Here is the input.
Amino acid sequence: MREQPITRRTFLATSTAGAAAWVASRQGRAETKQPGFRLVDQPGGRLRILEADQPVLTYNWRDQLKEGVPENRKRSCYCHPVRAPDGTILTDDFPKDHYHHRGIFWTWPHMKTRGKTVQTWHLQGIHQRFKSWNHKTAGAQGASIDVANDWLLDDGERVGRERLLMVVHRASALGRAIDLTLTFEAVGGPMELLGAKGKGYGGLCFRFAPRAGTVITTDAGVRKGDSNKETPKWADLSARFAGKTEMAGAAVFVDPGSHWKPTGWTLRHYGFLGPSWPGLNPYTLEPGAPVTLRYRVYVHRGGAAEGKVAEAYAQYAASAAIKDEA
Here is the structure.
């Protein structure tokens, strides 16, 4: 099944009700007295999104490198830091146990193109590179970025492209929804994607910051051990971050109407959630046949129960069903 490229018009027409209300407010059809969102360009190729002057997340569109980390771990096109509604930083970048992990990111450990085996996961032979902004917008009800990136081999040849559409919604008393639509397409020839051998990880990933009292919960309940093969509707990691006594966390939802479903989830108590795609079965991207993956990240106060993660997923699934019927 081939999916057509997503246009801005289609994206705005099919966004959730919260995003639609935000668009309407920008066009003068809705008004609010609540403080709105701002986008702030920062040095070093970072775009910060704020609500009521409080930081929400930062998209790193230029290469980043932490002091003391090897030069070959330099990377771009990912989100960090990402915060809970109370300001707690939930993501990590350049963790010592996995220098290649970076906040919320989307990469693969096995990629074949032009007769070469490369990977954006460990940053070997290929890198994601910023190309252009399609739009950057902030208003009373939310903020949105639409960015085009290229996949470039080390010799500079472009072999793929990706498009990120991200909508950041207003925070409630408990949590905030962040919608991610990721579209990938090969350029100039086919490209094979494959998850890690025996485990399947690859695709959307969330690396969590240092914390205590980690609890991973899915729609099947609290998970005691790590896993590679479970296929829950959603997964959440909650803990006490930055020495705080209060819990906070983040859940990842997969659009239930999406054609491209995870073949397993990578659940790690050291601080990692990832709906694996294509997992252990390779998928070949072709020019002119893009693949679109849709997710919602829900950051929240408290644990999964206190943050009402199950209820948030139900609302997301209902909005996805309405979208599919439209």
